Each structure stands twice: as C-alpha cells, then as structure tokens.
Amino acid sequence: MRLTVFGATGGIGQEIVKQGLAASHQVTAVVRDPSRFTVTGPGLEVFRSDLADPQALCPAVAGRDAVLSGLGARKKTDAGIATRLTRSVLEAMEAAGTRRLLVVSAGPLGPVPERQPLVDRAVLSVVKSVLRDVYADLRVMEDELARSATDWTSVRPPRLLDRPLTGSYRTVVGGTPRSGRTIGRADVAHAMLAMIDDPATLKHGVGVAY
User: Which of 117, 105, 96, 97 is nearest to 180 (CA)?
Assistant: First the structure.
C-alpha cells in the first residue's frame, strides 16, 4: 500500500513508518524538521511541511491508500494542536480525494467499560482532571473527523509506554478495553496498520490496550 504518516517524528509516528516499511509499504513521512527524522529505508519518502497550508499538503496525500496521523499534544500546554493540525490534514485529503484516515486520540474519550473496577474509575477521573484541556482538544478533533468526508478511525490508547512491539493487545470497536491501563507505542502503531483494511473500524473510535 501507499501510506502517508503525519507526526512521523513522534513515538507512534516513527513506529508506523518503521513497521510500514518492514511490511513493504510505500511510506511518505511528513515532518516539519527532517533533521529530527532518522528513519531510512527503501520505499520511504520524506515530505517537509509545517502543516499550516492544506493545499501544500495535497501532494503528500494524493493517491494514497491511507493516511495515518500521530499528531497531538506532547505536553499540557500544547492543547489545541491536535484539532488545528488535523483540520489541515482533513482539508488536504478532501481536496485530493483521499478517504482512509486513522488518527491517535486517547482512551479517556471512550466509554467507561461495564464493571470497570473502582480503582480504574478513580484513576481515570484524576487523569481527566489533570489533562482536561488536552482531552477537550481531542474531543473537538474527533468531532471534526465525524463531520468530514473521510473514512476515519480514531484509535484511543491509555497511558503510552516505550517498549518493544508485542503484537498482543486488546481492541474494542466503539468501546474501551476493561482495566486497560497501558500500551506500548509500537503496539499502537501495529494496531493502526492492522486497522487500515478493517471495515468494522470505519467511522468509529477504537479502544486499544494491553
């Protein structure tokens, strides 16, 4: 497949690129600063852009089978960035006629599972309070997805870890894995790539966790 990856210098974005190349996909990595991007390999194109101009992004998404985005806040003060940058991606995709889009959101945006232990509910409440601006931004981003013409999927992980790929995790379309507290960035990338051709995930949030 021909894939485009936004946020390719981030933890999940880099993993999507690496795993995509390992699976023999043609990958376009969109980055603002190529000096921060160290991934190399056959089938890789590096596309430099600051994402401010949707029209300038059209060549990066035109003719692609799917677009995958790891864009989002890296700290609390970045709240608002996910919506702003995703709007640019959506406008570029709609102008280019590219439909499949998978983005990283967050587990707390999904529904609370039935019979969720009280300790998990308490932790979730604290996390939502501390990161409320970040989650508000992601909620607006998901609203933008729902209004778009794309075939979108919003992937919702809990707390992210830096650990090797396992390929062993739970996914719940339209829901949240019970007591799913963590997941590695490499496994989030693996899940996103696996969902590209899964029609059950179209226009849904998907909870993913160990």
Answer: 117
